[in-house]
Amino acid sequence: MLPDLLKKNLQVVICGTAVANYSAKVGSYYAGSGNKFWQVLYEVGLTPIILDSRDYKKLINYGIGLTDLAKNKAGSDSKIPSHAFDIEKFKKKILKYSPKVIFFNGKNAAKIYLNKKRVEFGFQKETIGSTRLFVAPSTSGAAKRWWDKKWWQELSDFIKK
């Protein structure tokens, strides 16, 4: 749906399950009005300004990349069929670009990649090559009852070290 935003040796690549329908329609990551993504990147210090979703390509200037596990489907997690998640292609991309951290925006993306029924927030014991894996609450408006910015702050603090 949306092209990856990747280059070698990024600080972090943020990975979701798939783009939302609205994001696919307008051609911008995390474009929904209820999504906290752009605000939280600024609040935790990952970006020096609040970017607009239309400016998502500017994230690369701050050492941040974007991808999704399902690149050919859009919609809410419950509407994405399991065959749409291309785990092997995702893993190959990460091995090729070797970011410091993969940051799963929500537990569901991490569960799908790790093939686990449960995951906890924070760093995971698994890696992809030298890339560490981190899970934080989703910024989606649909996930607001689980929202806790502290996990986003923890990642930002780690990246800044």
List its salient traits:
161 residues; alpha/beta; Uracil-DNA Glycosylase, subunit E; five-stranded mixed sheet; 27% helix
Model description:
The protein has 161 residues and is of the alpha/beta class. It has one domain (12-160): Uracil-DNA glycosylase-like domain (Uracil-DNA Glycosylase, subunit E, 3-Layer(aba) Sandwich), CATH 3.40.470.10. 27% of the residues lie in helices and 17% in strands. The protein is built from 5 helices and 5 strands; from the N terminus they run βααβαβαββα. The chain has a 5-stranded mixed beta sheet with strand order 2-1-3-5-4. Strand 4 and strand 5 (131-136) form a beta hairpin. It starts with 11 loop residues before the first strand and ends with a helix. The mean pLDDT is 95.
